[in-house]
Amino acid sequence: MGKAGSRRIGYNPRVLALIKTFGCKVNYADSEETACALASRGWDCAHAGEDRHIGKCEPPQLVVINSCAVTHTAVAKVRRYIRRTRREYPEAKVVVIGCCAGNSEIASELRALGAEVADGHNLLPAISNTAPQYCYSARSRRFIKVQDGCDTYCAYCIVPYVRSKWNAPLIEVTNQLKRAAKDGAAEVVLCGVNIGLYSEPDIGFGFAKLLGKALAECPDGIRIRLSSIEPEHVSDELLSQYTNPKLCPHLHIPLQSGSERVLKDMGRRYCIGQYAKAVDTFRAALPFGSITTDLLVGFPTETDEDFQRTLESVRAFGFERAHVFRYSQRPGTAAASLKPLHASVTRERESELLKLCAEVADKRWERFIGRSCSVALESGSSGYGEAYQRVCVNPVTPNSKGLRNVKLASYAHGIFIGKAM
Fold first, then answer.
1. CB atoms closer than 10 angstroms to residue 65
2. Is 29 within 8 Å of 145 (Cβ atoms)?
3. I want to staple 180 with a disulfide (CB 3.0 to 4.6 A). Which of 185, 211, 297, 351 is the partner?
4. Which residues neighbour 302 within 8 Å (Cβ) at sequence distance 6 or greater?
């Protein structure tokens, strides 16, 4: 790419585009692609909340909001950010991309707040189904989107209706891995909306084989992590890849509910037995690996007994970390016609589940104290270990990049203190 496309994101902006990202790791990968596409048009790009020098720059002329629509709360955050942006940067053009842009009802609400919503005629290119352009990124952790879209149509989820299906060619994935290594990245996260649905466009093989080929091509000094994979796609072929030391011993498998009945009502495509098999196989092979999950509380058909089964599952599977979120009624989904539970019931269950998840995670993480760990530093003093441990490194190493070996000396409230080795 030419000179403009190789600019460092967030470096000395002149014509500044500010990018704010909400939601999943796929959105973060899309934001990187958006930054690259804008850079090729002469914009200097910064990511809101990540570049400390933004406040010293000229006000942005363009603010791109990469949105999430998975819950009402997620959409509310986008609305608040639009209002805040209009107050702080009244002269800036505000453009919304992402899942909110794919829903006509939400898009109309956002336009009423003074934002433009991206479409085929917008100044932003259609990047969701094309290979990304490349530009330099100084981040230690890089997100590479290998798949987009979903055909599962879970009863609570709007995502299949707002994201198009797409798969990255193998050559593009391996090229991005090599570029990330050349830039000095320490970790690459392969992500997708439903990554287990991956199909190589030219040859047609699935995600497990893509992962194997990516690991084979992965340069020394960089490691690969999976963002998330659905339980029905955790195959023996996939799990066999974890013998490769370049693959982080961490698996994020959404559970959503511990009740078979609720899983069926949700339209999920697995049973608790399948989930347990995946967990048991992974734990047996990688006793110092970690399993993280998503849990949805307050689905309209969830009874007290169903909720207790979710609590039992958390205790049984021993998640190192869990993302707990309340059910959000979303028009256009199968569950939208169901009568929601009273908000007080959902809040109470959420609070109980969050407390249990924290207690279970604390007990699980204790086994890592005293062990060595390889940390992908994000700010010079903190980052993530290979098993997704959150680590603050002591002493602080300003402007340090790459993988840093530490000894995990102590743990409290979800964070390890790592002594530099």
1. 27
2. yes
3. 185
4. 257, 259, 262, 327, 341, 349
Instruction: Give the span between the Cα atoms of 58 and 51, in whole angstroms.
Output: 14
Contact by Cβ (8 Å): 414, 361: yes
Q: What is the pTM of this model?
A: 0.85
Q: Which amino acid is at 145?
A: K
Residues whose CB falls within 8 Å of the CB of residue 6, separated by 6 or more in sequence, listed in order = 39, 135, 136
Phi, psi of 336 (to 5 degrees): -65, -25
Query: Which tens digit of pLDDT belongs to each residue from 288-313?
Result: 999 999 999 999 999 999 999 999 99
Q: Which residue has the tokens 């030391």?
A: 245
Q: What's phi and psi for 51, nearest 5 deg?
A: -105, 110
pLDDT at 32: 84
- Bridge partners of 324, per DSSP, are 295
| Residue pair 205/199 in contact by the 8 Å Cβ criterion | yes
Query: What type of residue sits at position 235?
Result: S
Question: Among residues 168, 153, 122, which one has the least CA distance to residue 30?
Answer: 168
- Strand 116-117 relative to strand 93-98: parallel, antiparallel, unpaired? parallel
Separation CA 331–CA 172 (nearest Å): 36
- What is the token pair recorded at 179? 């570029």
What are 210-257's pLDDT values in tens digits? Answer: 999 999 999 998 999 999 999 999 999 999 999 999 999 999 999 999
Please give the share of the chain, as a percent, with pLDDT higher than 90.
Answer: 68
Cβ atoms of residues 98 and 54 within 8 Å: no
CB 150 within 8 A of CB 197: yes
Please, which residues have CB within 8 angstroms of residue 231's CB and are 6 or more apart in sequence? 253, 254, 255, 270, 274, 275, 278
User: pLDDT higher for 17 or 341?
Assistant: 341
